[in-house]
Amino acid sequence: MYTLGYTLMVVSLLALLVSLFASRSWSRPVIKVGAVVFGIGAVVLLTGG
């Protein structure tokens, strides 16, 4: 299940990068969602899936 954790973290990082380049009204929610998904991915990795 490590793949799930890595996938979540990579996707969240991509979303954060996109939100940084696209300074529009939807960038702030993307940052929040990205942070949450990154946290979930980190927890999945730490708990071993």
Give short descriptive properties of this protein.
single chain, about 50 residues, mainly alpha, 2 helices, about 0% strand, elongated
Short structural summary:
It contains two helices and no strands. It is 84% helix and 0% strand.
Topology:
Blueprint: H1 2-21, H2 27-47
Count of extended strands: 0
Overall number of structural domains: 1
* C-alpha termini separation: 5 Å
The parts where pLDDT drops under 50 for at least 5 residues are: none
The biggest beta sheet, please?
Answer: none
Radius of gyration: 11 Å
Could you say which structural class the secondary elements and strand pairing correspond to?
Answer: mainly alpha
The percent range for strand residues is: under 5%
Please trace the helix and strand order, writing H or E for each element: HH
**Coarse shape:** elongated
Count of DSSP-assigned helices? 2
Give the fraction of residues assigned to helices. over 70%
Overall average pLDDT: 74
Task: Walk me through this protein's architecture.
It is a single chain. The chain is an all-alpha fold. It has one domain. Helices cover 84% and strands 0% of the residues. The protein has helices at 2-21, 27-47. Helix 1 packs antiparallel against helix 2. It is elongated. The mean pLDDT is 74.
